[in-house]
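Exercise (ungraded).
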Amino acid sequence: MAKIELNLSLNRVEGDLEIAVELEDGVVSQARTVGTLYRGFEQIMLGRAPRDGLVITPRVCGICGTAHLYSAVLALEQAWQLPVPPNAVRIRNLCLIAEGIQNDLRQTFLFFTPDFCNPRYIDRPWFAELMDAFEPFRGSVYRQTLALSRKAVEIVAQFGGQWPHSSYMLPGGVTTPPDLRRIIACRAVLDEIQRWYEQTVIGAGLDDWLALDSADAYFSWLETPAHAASALGLLSRSARGLGLQRMAAGTPHMLSYGAWCDPEQPQDRLVPGGFFDGDSGQIAPLDQRMINEHVRHSWFKPYPGGLHPSNGETIPDFQPNSDRYTWAKAPRYGDRAVQTGPLAELLIGGDALIESLHALEGGNAWLRQFARVRRIAYELVCARRMLDELSVDFSQPHIFNPGKSAEVDGEGFGLIMAARGALGHWVKIKDGAIARYQIVTPTAWNASPRDSNGLPGHWEQSLVGVAVQDPEDPIEIGHIIRSHDPCLVCTVHMLDTGKKRHFAP
Amino acid sequence: MATLFWLQTGACGGESLTILSAEAPSLEHLLSDCGIDMLWHPSLSHQPMRQHDELYRSIVVGEQALDILCVEGSIVTAPRGTGLYDSYRGTAKMDMVRELAQRAGVVVAMGTCAAFGGVHAAAPNPGDCVGLQFDRDRPGGLLPPEWRSRRGLPVVNVAGCPAHPHTMTQTLAGLAAGWSLPLDELNRPQAFFNTVVHQGCTRNEYHEYDIEELEPGGRACLFFNLGCQGPMTQAVCNSDLWNGVSSKTRAGVPCFGCTSPNFPRDADLFATPKVGEIPVQLPLGVERSRYMAYKNLARAAAPARVRNKEMDV
């Protein structure tokens, strides 16, 4: 049996990704994902004013700063037990959605579909059509994605002043009220994106598309000319032609924190979250106390088992020549490795089409990407609802300023569905300053290394069994990993570690 | 054509995403019409990584000409100066930057991290991060102060967290055209740093009449109480609006001074340190006693529409 070790690096992901795979006769028998960067946000947060987290944590990630800001502000509001006016929640949701649309478009058409333009596929029946649409910097859909994703973040700029990296969500609300000018401008952006999404991405009206509720219905729809010629139709035909619907299930367990806070009941989510148990097929309510993180295979000072984020620890302990191999920790839900992202969000949230496709073929690389494109429809609907509700009465408050006396010591957490999946911030405030800060990002779940029990993380599981045709250009691995929307800058952990430490390599 | 190689070091990817928001020129316009040949960009290139490795090798040995090297992110030097907290296939990114810089016509630090160290270099600087040719506000980072690129330039610091989209694309367009780009004392291209964020801020009239907010969410000026650095921060945020739409200060978010070498400053970012009634730091170049005299007069002269904060921003 020919056995080779392959160290792969991957571009078109956020941050640096290296994967070590073992190939037996061309099939992946083992995989290890390696986070190669440690920035140490945790020590930077320690001792700072609690609100500084709203400036610093969005800068963990250049693509989902709004999601980090949202989690950070929820954590502070929980610690300080603050009410939030409904219009602030609406504006927060609207901005998070705009960032989500940006991400879903860019991830799909700038990061994922370029893999299909590989010369290896030149003989495929869809290749010429695909190049017309998806060729980087030249294809029509690629270029339109550049233009439309740029438009989407204008919505964030209306309320946050800029995208990315702003701090417009503050404890008790947001800094800018809705007004006629902003609402109409946002609506214009949304209309333009929706028109393009309908005409070019799905080839149908939004309502018809959302009404599709079964795998059979989708496959017959895929045969209709308008949809077949659409960007999603093309993506589905090529991905399925390559068998991506049979690849890379990974862990069957999924996690969603639920999408978008309910403006009237901010503790509730407009799209419900939960834990999907892949063994039983049942969805259990979310219990954040079940979350814990392991470091057995990470370059952090070891501790036994897993620790809940509210009392976790992150002390760098770089040991490059050991069985530890990454700067990412291993988050677990109970003792389960889980996947998170749009597939988890829609499956747990109850989208009938995704449920049906998942029941038929299970989790797979195509379905993950398909779910990301499908989610844009929900984002458009929810964004429009937020705008409609905001326009009812512009005089409603957009912030309840808590005043200094509310800034008491305590603990809180904020859980959000970021574009890439479940994002949580846990904060502890002592003597008026940040005493502990822990972030568990979506990519930390997906890119997790092995845990204390030796259980591999989701990507590591999803790569096993994949046949690699050309180890010099392992494009299959690109399809699979990019279907997860990886963001390696997000594997960085935050927590107090006390003093600055140095460790010899 | 000017060849360009983009490298991410200790970064969040913010500059890569932000540059996609540029419109005049846009990134795609920069590539199709402004004479830039992008050899590699980690987030956008579709070629396999073996091509990246081959490009890197051929640049380092001098087979492939490199006109513009863009670096995004802090230079991570931990642990113990090895740089291995930020590696690529076992090589410290820090060493890759050094090698590429020796071959580059010009080196551009994209964003405050690459320019000065940025958020990752904030105290206690756990990654021992520095900028390319500055360590916060001190000259000399990865490269010594006297270092010059092949074109005879120090590292061009396109500061900002993230850098403004047009500050990035217009700098690159100018460099590709071979223009000389006068730099300020922090090696930032003067054209984009010769204005302060305060200029063009829609809250200016409130500042003028000293009508100040005590709490966030209002319409008035954020300088006296809420930590706004707009009057001291050089950047185009209010003269070339973000995403074509707005700026942080217009949206009621204090300017945190993200184009400055000491960003983020080591203090409560939403508060203005004051001695008595007076901010410790005053607008760029302003004399304290005159400023206070003027402010008191101005407040007395404020029209009711401003005093009552009736004017939208």
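Further reading is listed at the end of the chapter. For now, observe: The two ends of chain B are 44 Å apart (CA to CA). The first strand of chain B starts at residue 2 and ends at 8.
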